[in-house]
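Quarterly update from the structural biology core.
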Amino acid sequence: MDWLSRLFEMMPVRGRLDLRCSYGAPWRIDQGPGEASEIPYHAVLAGSAMLENPAGGRPLQLKAGDILLLPGNPRHVMHDGGGAAPLPAHNRVSVNFTISETFGSDERLDLLCGHFAITQPHDRLLRRSLPPLLIVHAGSDTTQTQTAAQLAGLVSLMRRESADDHLGGRAMLNALSTAMFALVLRLASETQDTPRGILALAGQPRLAPAVAALFNEPARAWSLPELARLCNMSRATLARQFQEKLGRSASDLLTDIRMTLAANELKKSSLSTGAVAEGVGYQSEAAFQRAFKDYMGFTPAQWRKKQEPSDKDVFSKPTVPSGTDPTRPLPK
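Predicted structure, tokenized:
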């Protein structure tokens, strides 16, 4: 199984479309931070937007075809760039989605706003592996890659689904949002300027055998020389490549994978702690207990107890830009 498919098998991601924004200038979106388990996304269908860089520095311009993910889940601000006081936004609620509108200039922004929900501790693995801000382009120019074309087609389908209420529309929009997450990560891994993280690591074909080995056989006692031989490179070169691309060592990534799998097993099964430890590659239950406590902040027993059934739905709190009409609440 390829590493991205394996990643999604380990930590299911569910997408949700919260709003379709139709804004005429002057407008402003002030959003976040959201729930710890959320990664906000914005897909620009038409028009353009200025994003105040959450990390500081110059604002970033988003144009039609751009898709923004914010794995760091910070407070973030987007606006038209004109500097005028924004017009109030109003919600128009339908059966399957909500449109947020301002009645400004004819140059309008058409924007899909949503989020991806990831349960703990999987959000930790993603935040450690992805950049705090990620932008990919899925425009319709003739030089686009196959992945960009697929992503553009998917966003186009979301655009049509959110233009009117159709039977099964909400299910379609949420399913398409989930698929968009995988395509965005695939496209980001194919670009040359991907920020440090697992996408930059996956973008190096020579390192692919090592990454696949760690994801597909995490219980194996991998050594750096073994991983280096898989990639036909020296131990020192492999270590340097992991540090430069991922920002951490191969051993650190293996620990992430093992702890994620262990957390899953402790949550869903009645296996003993010793059996879980052995299943993720620890010969000593005591060593596993220490590693799990250092990583999670809980002992395996405490973590298992925390995972008792809850009525809380990760989608119970939609993300809404500020300025929307509070007298027209979004459906829950």
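Residues 3-195 form a domain with the Jelly Rolls fold (CATH 2.60.120).
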